[in-house]
Amino acid sequence: MSPLVFANNAPTLAERCKDAAGIALIALLLGIPMIGLTTADQGGSLQVLTRWPLLGAFVAAAFCGRLALRYGLDMLKQRRQTRDREAAARPGKRGVRSIRILELTGWLAFGIALVLPILFSDNRYVVDTATTVLIYVMLGWGLNVVVGLAGLLDLGHAAFYAVGAYAYALLSTQFGWGFWTALPVAGLTAAVFGLALGWPSLRLRGDYLAIVTLGFGEIIRVVLTNWTDLSGGPNGISSIPRPTFFGLPFVPSSDTGTFASFFGLEFSPMHRIIFLYYVILLLSLLTNVLVKRLRRLPIGRAWEAMREDEIACKALGMNITNVKLSAFALGAMLGGVAGVFFAARQGFISPESFTFNESAIILAIVVLGGMGSQLGVVLASVVLVLLPELGRDFAEYRMLLFGAAMILIMVWRPGGILSHREPTLRHQPAGEQA
Amino acid sequence: MALALQQLINGLTLGAVYGLIAIGYTMVYGIIGMINFAHGDIYMVSAFIAVTGFTLLTAFGVTSVPFALLVVLIVAVLFTSVYGWAVERLAYRPLRGSTRLAPLISAIGMSIFLQNMVQLTQGARVKPIPPMITGGIDVLTTDGFTARLSYSQILIVLVTVALLAAFTWLITRTSFGRQQRACEQDRTMTALLGIDVDRTISLTFMLGASLAAVAGVMVTMYYGVVDFYIGFVAGIKAFTAAVLGGIGSLPGAMLGGLIIGLIEAFWSNYLSAEYKDVATFSILILVLMFRPSGLLGRPEVEKV
Amino acid sequence: MRAGMNAENIILSVEHLTMRFGGLAAIDDLSLAVPAGKITGVIGPNGAGKTTFFNCLTGFYKPTEGVVSLNHPTRGALRLADLPSHQVAHVAQVVRTFQNIRLFPKMTVLENLIVAQHNALQKASGFSLAGILGLPSYRKAEQQAVAKAVDWLTRLHLIDKADTPAGALPYGTQRRVEIARALCVDPLLLCLDEPAAGLNPRESGELNELLLRLVADAKLTILLIEHDMSVVMNVSDHICVLNYGRKIAEGTPKQIQNDPNVIKAYLGEEDADELLHAEVSA
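ok -> structure tokens follow
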């Protein structure tokens, strides 16, 4: 139906219009039941409402959009062809320069992250939002190990997020554990759950693995919603203690001294906010360093090799079971640590925060950012968290846009936006010829 | 005894619905080797179309239930097929030759998109409609409980049986069915023989969507309430059914559907209603671990 | 040098190997003794079961019947069919290449060869702990691994491609990379599945030299599936011919060239002698 033009002669305006009209017709058919008609609750029962103007606008937009898209794509293709021809005649060190840009951007982002709370020390909203971004960055980096490096499609990452959060919630409310002591334990618990997911999934290929991980995520959520004795059921666990500054609580006044009194400062709720921000910044930086290190170690290369070709790995003597399980365990642990922080920050958790939607968001971050790319995850998290803040409309359309973006990115750039892969070992330093 | 019989009836009815959706999964998997993650949401779209359709017909004063049902069925099938076609063209066809991961993520994106699209255009609230078909046959009474076979249940089972027969005929006796089976086995060769592979794949998606559409209409009529999330849950269960029956096998999909439906009915009644979904997911994991080719499927040998 | 088989130096003994898929016997009662330190060729028309044979050897298929036994110098007789594929490579030191090249395309050539040394490096990294901490013991192990990789890359004339992503290389080069990678696993028995496919005559000549040198220098045995007769006939000490899963002939290259069964299998009943002779002596 769609006229793919391979020949050098561009399609005529009539052909373009016919193509766009076809798309508009499809849009009409798709739109009638969903956009043109809808049902609404009026006086206790459903009534049908019509929205023909909206449908008309949708169809018109489809028509114009298709015309513009085809035209734009054809122009881009022409421009790229000329550019490729020129580039082939002149082999350059373009690759090295783009690596430099990426590195610089990374350092810049780090710098901004470091000083942000100081610059906005009286703006709770900014620091709060930045904290949320960092939580998603950490979740994304954790999932990146499983999906980006090891190539295992995990649709249930929110489960490990939940395990970490609930582990901390229970340890602190039931046993009085502190944040820093509970952190490694909760992380290890999540890692064990990662192994529990990995073990039945060992022989599963892509699609089946995805569904099983999704099922795992749902099982965890259903159990948390229903095992009320353990998890508080749909009401969750509340009154989770906030982290302290080496024992000094962030409260206005206390018998044993507070953070503000110790440092001779006047109490401000911003202290806790900023402290939390630096905690998550520290956790995510540790994550980044850890993952970067692991990538250069045999296990990291094994993950990537397994992603590329599992059978070749087996033929070279690699025990794929261990490689897979380690990816799951590490990804789960990192997700769990993020969960601990989430619980400590919120003071209250419930199964609502750990749905499949959450897993899908984290996956979207990893995929859109570029699988395996640390910086890409950061960029995608920023976009994800900031987009709904730009306006109510964006908030409503956020998931819709994300779904569409996932499709578009896969069609256009399956590797993600920043999909360049930096080798872990070089024979000659980058930019030199042998 | 009657209670058990009621569970049996309920389970088979539910299973028939799952089976219809599962056939769509298995047909698409057979022909392009990928799970259509958005299939459950196609079913959900059809359920919403059914709600709109029934409400519209009631507003027009249509009182004949069989007429309304027929109209809504046809309308839902038509529109849902277009959705099925669009999903394939947008999310799958551009990625035909790429790695396994890309189409899967694209499908997940499509699923998210459809769910949110329906949520935005139709409202996030649950949609209730008054029951269309009431009444049934009392079958057995023991211990003060009466097992009842409702007319809507009979209808669902009859429609399912009819569709299954029609599809089996379509796949085994018509030339389209042959083309489809050829595409399943060797796409390149089929193309070289002059068969329009793209068209065959599109039609397969549309057929799968039609079956899901029928399931959506049936469910709307049966339960009387839909929301934008039913596709997600039903999708996983139907996929489990397809895997249980043997992915690629049409009778297997229906068999798997019936089994899942029965397990769900009995589990939720005798053990615990909250954990019935956990039971289904656990079955999926167990089947994939121990018998990945399912009950009626052929074991796949990976070419090294 | 290339004399007949010495019965004491059999590195791989295959006895009554049968592999059935449903009703089809892809390999039917195959028995073969592969002499150590020599090059054994496995030839036969397409579909004869050669790659299936390799899959049975290396743990990718579980044979329906039969015994495949590797005589390891230190570990004794190992029954390959009982080992999972990664242990066939790691413990029995039987390493193979693939008919459809299986490199890690997004990783560089050098990385491909380092991955091949995964087990040794993983041990040296102490479950990654020594690696994370940057301990010198791990760094030394990594340097040694790189040195070995560089050594093989140099010997196979691939060193200038060390930092190129493997997927970006031309086909013939990729084949050489796959062989270099297999060599980094320190194999006792190297199973090459059509290494000359896609090579031009000069490249296949170089391949011949490489194979002969490998067997002469390293303590290596080579088992070779190949269609290119200019390679097989010139390097093999011993050839086994398969057709429809059965062994139809076995012997030295000269014997195989003159064997009527072989000629019949390749060319059918008519147009026998001249054509096969011409192809084979190329």
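Chain B has a mean pLDDT of 86.
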